[in-house]
């Protein structure tokens, strides 16, 4: 099998790793890839948003299966282009990818499908948005409707803070085109859970649930980031909750998208807020696998990821995915200055021998002319540990993160702290 993974971050390294594990003899490529993907795939020096060159490469290499990792090429229509040329693709059309690329569109879909989500208003006019905020209960959330690299949602404790945030987006262009439309919504109380569903547009197969850690500092303090770590599975996400999410969220949304003539095929991410009664509401949808949650979820699969992707890419219902009876914890190592002004260039040293069950996924690294590994992005490495118990996976991930060296290294030592609280309460 000839496979192409599009993207160059930690998520794509994890996808390549999972595909290589299941297909040791496959002709596996990654574009553009990174120093980590280079150990399991052939990197192609093609940016993930260069649709013409990616389509040409797929043709030249005779690719059988393409898995698109990031949201930007999906929103730009890469999947449409590749399918039009007869390629089997895991990833939605540009029209269906609007469920992430436009939060306003996602709210419209959820309202039509009867899916629980926060009450909201959508605005392009500043005065109308400010008037809405002035009558809104505190706290509230302001979101840039477009793609903002996971940083376009701002939780505002007061109406004044929300007003400043809306002004920054609509008047000052703080998020560029992504913030030309804003969504103002009620703050949902509860605990967040990340779900991935592989779908052909009708049927859906859920992967193990995960929980992301968005804040930079321990105890969920500091600025919002693209994600400082994740763990899976989540005790809160019981089999009953997952089935409810499948039945009350995934299936109605997929049906609504089909009804509109924009069926969704690929990986659909649902960020859920679960309240004290155990009722899930949708915080957001993404049109692809999440990052860094993918790095925790894929290593838990017994196998079958390739087959499920192959079926979805050919318009068939995804096959079932069995998970190990184990836990995975992923710790993100970030550069100094992340998320606002990450400093690049520091040399990175990863121990040659890693503990059993530990893998390091590259996210923002490069090799210089002498072969030295260096920091090349905000989130640099993802340290995933899989173990029979959550406590052991957490320890292994944390200790390996401590052993990796680069100047300015920033990471959280409390990934999975809510799960620790739950296990302590049960114990």
Characterization of this structure:
With 427 residues, the chain is an alpha+beta fold. The protein folds into 3 domains: 2-93, 3-Layer(aba) Sandwich (Rossmann fold), CATH 3.40.50; 119-186, Dna Ligase, domain 1; 191-426, D-amino Acid Aminotransferase, Chain A, domain 1, CATH 3.30.470.20. The protein has 13 helices and 22 strands. It has a 5-stranded parallel beta sheet, sandwiched between helices. Strands 12-15-18-22-19 form a 5-stranded antiparallel beta sheet. Helix 7 packs antiparallel against helix 8. It is globular. The relative contact order is 0.13. The mean pLDDT is 96.
Q: Main sheet: which strands, in order across?
A: 3-2-1-4-5
**Extended strand count:** 22
User: What level of helicity do the residues show?
Assistant: 25-40%
In angstroms, what separates the terminal alpha carbons? 47 Å
Beta-strand percentage range: 25-35%
- Say which CATH homologous superfamily of the largest domain is assigned: ATP-grasp fold, B domain
Using only C-alpha atoms, the radius of gyration works out to 21 Å
Helix count, DSSP H or I runs of 4 or more residues: 13
The CATH C-level class name of the largest domain = Alpha Beta
Q: What is the level-2 CATH architecture name of the largest domain?
A: 2-Layer Sandwich
Instruction: Let me know the average pLDDT.
Output: 96
Summing up helix and strand content along with how strands pair, one would put the structural category as alpha+beta
Could you name the ranges where pLDDT drops below 50 across 5 or more consecutive residues? none
The main β sheet shows up as: 5 strands, parallel
According to CATH, the fold-level topology of the largest domain is D-amino Acid Aminotransferase, Chain A, domain 1
